[in-house]
Amino acid sequence: MLKIHSKLPAQGVTIFSQMTAMAQRLNALNLSQGFPDFAPPQALVEALSHATLHGSNQYAAGDGLLSLRQQVAQQFLQRDQLQIDPIHEITITPGATIALFSAIQAIVHAGDEVIVFDPSYDSYAPSIALVGAKAVHIPLMAPHFHVDWNRVANAINAKTRMIIVNTPHNPTGAIWSKQDWQQLIQLIQNRNIVVLSDEVYEHLVYDGQQHYSALSFPELRERCFVVGSFGKTFHVTGWKTGYCVATPELMRVFRQVYQFANFCGVTPVQVALAQYMQEYPEHIQQLARFYQQKRDLFNASLAASRFTLTPSQGTYFQSLDYRAIRPDLNDVDMCHFLAEQHGIVAIPISVFYQQPSEDLKLIRFCFAKTEQTLTQATQILSAV
Ligand code: GLN
């Protein structure tokens, strides 16, 4: 008899797969999983088609197509005045998820501790568990989901090997200020701790605020991995292409792992992204305004509803508080209620917690949708 010992015995199917499947089953409006319902830029799709038709169909360099790495370096130069060496400090990966996974595999050993802030993106804790390390979950403080720095100070000990930061933050839309980063620097500067900074929503920051990358702080430059995703930036989540940036020393151990986790990213996708980024630099410059309009439309259309909200500062997610509508339901049941009774699907926030509070009556909606979808969604929600 074969004995199977799962390494993640309590792990079910991700909430994103579950909710998208439910939306399909019920033929409901899907504002759960984070992906746009509109087409990517025509020139980008054409560049992909051109790349496949003209021979870019075999393995790419393991570290990524150099011209795409150069485009990533160019972004950091323009935005943060940072010199990043595309050869030794940038790796293109098939999505941000494998970059996060590889960075954890590369740095964290069995018995180490990794601090994560709850609600935390669902891939972090399983990736930590798979190396035999312990995730130390620190809840962010509602309603603005700021960090309680005293709790972080108390959680750090000799076993702490990594702290995972996510700004702009999925699912809450909170962003880290310069002061947040300075607090973190103070707490870790004389310790052997690496920062893994998940910045996949780096270009989606609203109300004139600024995204601070971990890389922009000289004190963190030597001890951070920054992970990004072209999927969010170019409306192509299904192209699963991301990147990782770190010093040559950190990148060397990252690549030791990554080359066997995946070896290389998808060639024609990298060719297309590099070409598009070079030809259309305005795409990224206009992105925050593009999504802020969607956030504002979504939020303003809910003004007369019984949901309440704190406007999202970044990402393409908006959380709504439903305690005035169904205080009797927990957020998972509220999502089922909305899907089954009203034909709209959201994501419960509690699934991103190790220990969700009973009082959390929040559900997350993705506003990366056409005006038509957003109008339809807010009409449904206003009638609840
Ligand atoms: N990051 C996306 C979200 O938060 C989903 C990614 C996934 O489906 N794994 O909705």
From TrEMBL:
GO molecular function: kynurenine-oxoglutarate transaminase activity; pyridoxal phosphate binding
Aminotransferase class I/classII large domain span: 29-379
Pfam families xref list: Aminotran_1_2 (PF00155)
Highest taxon, organism lineage: Bacteria
Coiled-coil regions listed in the entry: none
Naturally occurring in which organism (per UniProt): Acinetobacter tandoii DSM 14970 = CIP 107469
Cofactor(s) essential for the protein: pyridoxal 5'-phosphate
Family per record: Belongs to the class-I pyridoxal-phosphate-dependent aminotransferase family.
SUPFAM superfamilies linked: PLP-dependent transferases
Highest classification ranks of the organism: Bacteria, Pseudomonadati, Pseudomonadota, Gammaproteobacteria, Moraxellales
Gene3D superfamilies according to UniProt: Aspartate Aminotransferase, domain 1 (3.90.1150.10), Type I PLP-dependent aspartate aminotransferase-like (Major domain) (3.40.640.10)
Alphabetical list of InterPro entries matching this protein: Aminotransferase_I/II_large, Kynurenine-oxoglutarate_AT, PyrdxlP-dep_Trfase, PyrdxlP-dep_Trfase_major, PyrdxlP-dep_Trfase_small
Entry keywords, A to Z: Aminotransferase, Pyridoxal phosphate, Transferase
Protein name listed in UniProt: Methionine aminotransferase
PANTHER family for the chain: FI04487P
GO cellular component, one term: cytoplasm
